[in-house]
Design goal:
By secondary structure, the protein is α+β, with helices and mostly antiparallel strands. The protein is about 25% helix and about 25% strand. It contains 2 helices and 5 strands; from the N terminus they run E-H-H-E-E-E-E. The longest helix has 18 residues.
Length: about 130
């Protein structure tokens, strides 16, 4: 979960768009990531796994996410740049939404303090990032 430095705005809209734009949102997901190694590169698998995982977590925390789609690209690119033995990385990041709870029936203002998770709408974002050489 990314509770800061995450937005979702500037996306194409049509008459069916219901998502509101925001510059500050909770980004929650359940990451599935797999990667392939270059068969010609010697790889120490345990340290490599730890390194790729650390890269994923550091880049996820450090960058400003304009969308989950952009985050997949930024993270995948960083993994390939920092780990020369990795030839491609595939990630699946479902967009797990959290909406602010309407507390007005109780006479309480909710200034983005209480959220509820929901399954609707739900986006499944997937990508594979490969070396071009």
């Amino acid at each position: 979960m990314k509770t800061t430095r995450s937005a979702f705005s500037g996306f194409p809209r049509d008459r069916f768009t219901t998502l509101k734009e925001t510059e500050d949102r909770i980004m929650a997901t359940k990451v599935t990531a797999t990667w392939l190694y270059d068969p010609a590169a010697p790889v120490a698998f345990d340290p490599s796994f730890t390194g790729v995982r650390s890269t994923f977590l550091a880049v996820m925390a450090e960058h400003f996410s304009v969308s989950v789609q952009a985050s997949i690209w930024i993270i995948g690119k960083a993994i390939l740049e920092r780990h020369p033995g990795v030839s491609e990385v595939t990630m699946t990041l479902p967009n797990l939404h959290h909406w602010t709870v309407d507390l007005s029936p109780f006479g309480i203002e909710n200034d983005r303090e209480v959220y509820v998770s929901t399954t609707e709408p739900h986006g499944l974002i997937e990508a594979t990032i490969r070396r071009s050489d």
